[in-house]
Amino acid sequence: MRNLKLTLAYDGTEFSGWQIQPNVPTIQGTLKTALEKLLNHPVNVTGSGRTDAGVHAHGQVANLETMRSIDTDAVLRGVNALLPREIRVWQVEEVGSEFHSRRSARSKTYEYHVWRSYIVSPFHCRYVYMFPYEIDTVAMDEASRMFMGTHDFTSYCATATPVEDRVRTIFESEWRRSTEEWTFAIRGSGFLQYMVRTIVGTLLYVGTGKLKPQDILSIFEQRDRRLAGPCVPACGLHLVRVDY
Q1: Quick one: CATH architecture of 107-243?
Q2: Is 136 a catalytic residue?
Q3: pTM higher than 0.85 for the full model?
Q4: Of 24, 182, 234, 241, which is most buried, counting CB atoms within 10 Å of its CB?
Q5: Where in the chain is the domain with CATH 3.30.70.660?
Q6: Of the listed 11, 52, 73, 141, which one is catalytic?
């Protein structure tokens, strides 16, 4: 059996997230269908992680095993010919049997895009969250730095998250700003359900004065989701890169 690593991008707007679900379109399900048609045998497609409904990816990684000898360039061309235009595979590589797209990952980088004007282009609105209100950037930057390091993120993820170990390490947490679009970049060892979107919602609360920067650490300690800010919409969230 050969182990193939796929790097792919997708517009998640019309999909119900990565993971296969009955009776709804998903990235994993659509990719699996295309690969099975191309390779002519059942495949299990494993992703580096599950993106939620409406979340986009520029550098998602998946892997699968195949018994076929078709070369990687032919797989690349063939699978893209079978996929909808909202999903593109950038690269196909043959890797060792020990490679696993999720377990082998060392870190992931996400970006959240916030649009700072009252008007968003119809060609851009699917990929940003419009938030044109006044923001204290100094307070928000101070709060952003407090997410760095190793913490228990119980307060900053979905209440129903089934994962018991909610400790994650954050290596990067910063805002990059232009006139109309602000981007929050965060790189970590892993992420829980709604974690990035809740962090951004909390930072926007700090920026608008509803929370103070020093509240961030207190919210960590209390492990209570109700104390953090809201979970902002999925449309602004982008999985940028997975590092191995």
Answers
A1: 2-Layer Sandwich (3.30)
A2: no
A3: yes
A4: 182
A5: 107-243
A6: 52
What gap in Å lies between CA 244 and CA 160, rounded to an integer? 29
What is 12-73 written as a DSSP string? -TTS--SS--TTS--HHHHHHHHHHHHHTS----EESSPPPTT-EEEEEEEEEEE-----HH
Q: List the one residue out of 114, 121, 240 whose CA is nearest residue 184.
A: 114
Ramachandran angles phi, psi of 45, nearest 5°: -100, 120
Output the CA–CA distances (angstroms, integers) from residue 188 to 47, 86, 136, in the order listed: 17, 27, 25
Q: Would you call 89 exposed, middle or buried from its count of C-beta atoms within 10 A (0-12, 13-18, 19+)?
A: buried
CA distance 127 to 135: 21
CA dist., res. 234 & res. 196, Å (int): 10
pLDDT tens profile 115-152: 999 999 999 999 999 999 999 999 999 999 999 999 99
Looking at the chain, the domain(s) classified CATH 3.30.70.580 span 2-95
User: In the structure, what pLDDT confidence band is assigned to residue 162 with cuts at 50, 70 and 90?
Assistant: confident
